[in-house]
Amino acid sequence: MPSELENAMESLIKVFHRYASDDGKSTTLNRRELRSLMENELSNFLQSQKDPAAVDKIMKDLDTNGDGQVDFEEFVSLVVGLSIACEQCYKMHIRKSVKH
Ligand SMILES: [Ca+2]
Questions:
Q1: CA of residue 57 to ligand 1 center, whole Å
Q2: pLDDT tens, 12-68?
Q3: CA 34 / ligand 1 centre spacing (Å)
Q4: How far is the CA of 96 from the centre of ligand 1 (A)?
Q5: Beta-bridge mates of residue 70
Q6: What is the pTM assigned to this prediction?
Q7: Distance from the CA of 17 to the center of ligand 1, in angstroms?
Q8: Cα–chain-centroid distance for residue 42?
């Protein structure tokens, strides 16, 4: 039976490929697919970004090899960045609940 962490990794791969396969080219996300993924799977984060061009900027940041597509490796850096930010909040939350 897969562990909790293995399940999380599998989810990451599945979600990426579900959106990446929208255009029949399943190995990368184009701009529209990235927008769709973020609107559905990262809606809280996206709503916190007041900038309407946020997805375009994120796309530009993620596309490190400059091919206009986001591959899995590039996508993972977004997840890692957001996870690090979330973990900061989580630590603050723990510290607060310990004090009470
Ligand atoms: Ca790319």
A1: 14
A2: 999 999 999 988 878 999 999 999 999 999 999 999 888 889 999 999 999 999 999
A3: 12
A4: 40
A5: 29
A6: 0.87
A7: 15
A8: 7
